[in-house]
TrEMBL record:
Protein known as: 7,8-dihydroneopterin aldolase
Keywords, ordered alphabetically: Folate biosynthesis, Lyase
Domain of life according to the entry: Bacteria
InterPro entries to which the protein is assigned, alphabetical: Dihydroneopterin_aldolase, FolB_dom, GTP-CH-I_C/QueF
The protein's annotated pathway: Cofactor biosynthesis; tetrahydrofolate biosynthesis; 2-amino-4-hydroxy-6-hydroxymethyl-7,8-dihydropteridine diphosphate from 7,8-dihydroneopterin triphosphate: step 3/4
Family: Belongs to the DHNA family.
Every Dihydroneopterin aldolase/epimerase domain range: 4-116
Matching Pfam families: FolB
Summary of the function given for this chain in its UniProt record: Catalyzes the conversion of 7,8-dihydroneopterin to 6-hydroxymethyl-7,8-dihydropterin.
Documented EC number(s): 4.1.2.25
Gene3D superfamilies assigned: 3.30.1130.10
Catalytic activity field: 7,8-dihydroneopterin = 6-hydroxymethyl-7,8-dihydropterin + glycolaldehyde
Length: 125
């Protein structure tokens, strides 16, 4: 088992609880961690025996383009996409951050973190 991480991904997107947020947009950050078997790729040096970073980035980017009210919803959609499209991934952890959220005071970012583990029989739990 091993971990692949994509850290510090940045997107401009139109998420937010308030209508105004969905109109003007904001900057968001994503940190993604997946657990999968990396031993075969380590031995063979073949891309098809691991998870392609470009595929992970594309899945995150596609979900970031679809507006949502809550960061929790965006994070959940990414977890679902990765576990549905990459069945050999055992666990996914994602943090989604909104930079400078409209709280009426100073806050550099608001962040949510979700984890999804695949069950023993390949099901999602």
């Amino acid at each position: 088992m091993g971990q692949i991480a994509l850290e510090g991904l940045e997107f401009f997107a139109f998420h937010g609880y308030y209508d105004e947020e969905q109109k003007i947009g904001n900057k968001y950050g994503v940190d993604l961690y997946i657990k999968t078997d990396l031993l075969a790729a380590g031995e063979s040096d073949k891309l098809q025996q691991t998870v392609n970073y470009e595929v992970l980035y594309r899945l995150v980017a596609e979900e970031m383009r679809a507006p949502a009210r809550l960061l929790e919803h965006v994070a959940h959609r990414v977890l679902d996409r990765i576990t549905a499209e990459l069945p050999h991934v055992r666990e996914v952890k994602i943090s989604v951050s909104k930079f400078n959220p409209p709280l009426g005071g100073i806050c550099h970012r608001a962040r949510v973190t979700l984890v999804k583990k695949r069950g023993k029989h390949g099901d999602n739990s």
